[in-house]
Model the fold of this input.
Amino acid sequence: MNKHKISVALSGAGGYGYHYLKAFFNLPDGFNAILSSVFDPKLVDLEIYPELIKNGVNCFTEYEDFKNSLKNIDLVVIVSPIHRHGSQTIDALKHGCNVLLDKPLASSLQEAHRIIEARDASKGWVMTGYQWSFSKAIRDLKQDLLDGKLGKVKRAKTMILWPRDYNYYNRNNWAGKKYSHSGEIINDNPVNNAMAHFLHNLLYLTGSSMEESAVPVSGQAELYRAYNIQTFDTAVLELFTRDETRISFYGSHATHTEKGPLFILECDNGVVYYGELSKDIVAVFNDGSIKNYGNPDDTLQFHKLKVAIEACQNKPTLICPPEASLAHTQVIEALSEIKLIKGFEPSLVVDDGVRRYVQGLSYMIYSSYQQGVMPGQSGFAYASPGQKFNIKY
Done:
């Protein structure tokens, strides 16, 4: 192992960034890394600030000062708002740093391509922090898929019902926004934020190599909202990939009950289940045999941080490079161009002062997931027909 201590900088110490910092401070003794600097505009007000000072970490509340300090940094961990992912990743690469970027890759397809161009022009690498892609269970399953043990994936679907309250949408000035006050593209919605992992997971599992995801080419979407936001809080998607795999996503922040994540892969040689029949990923083969891959959450969430530090020390085996996370951004770009976001029937929306939820929505989505259809095809009274789209590259 390289005796040089890997220097790490982190952008974004509030929210999820706080958990990155706690994970760093809990790295095993002797782990060859040092936290050099942290940036957050509200850093001095955060609970973790005294601990950072105690540990001699350089603390920045101005981004330009933080950026100018990156010259001798090995790894920059970016946990900033979605619309800062592109510019901050490019800044780090220009300073010769490697980057562990929290999901999603970028707020737009143009920004994603700019990241790849900057990566190619630099000596650094970029990994996107979709933690399931770093987990043993998912990687073992993907290897079996690549080896042909399950045959071709014909159909893949996932469902996530995660109710969110007003605090979720009021926690910052960009939640639920399509654009910032200054006109920057954000595209914050369930598919691009809290549930981004699970759409990416299906695209990743059906990709043609360990470093790539499937290439989506077309699809249709039903987009809804109960909250007064610019984007949507509920989405059902049906995608088709270049190799004709059908991928479906069902998700909402406006249900009364919580359920998921769940996913199913229907393959030529069997079916893979997660989250409902078992807490583990289980493949049931056509010959009656069963293989248990374990739970993707058994791999610690911040294993990705350890992987990134180790990649700075040795010849890197890159997990979830931009080539793997680009497909998700391509889908989000297509969704951002859909004009119709249907409001739910007001008589069905319950507002208890803490959150909003739609009566019957949990049933509508779960029933559609089980049948493998779009709600608009199922005869539900307030469902709208899917809007078709093609994917840009």
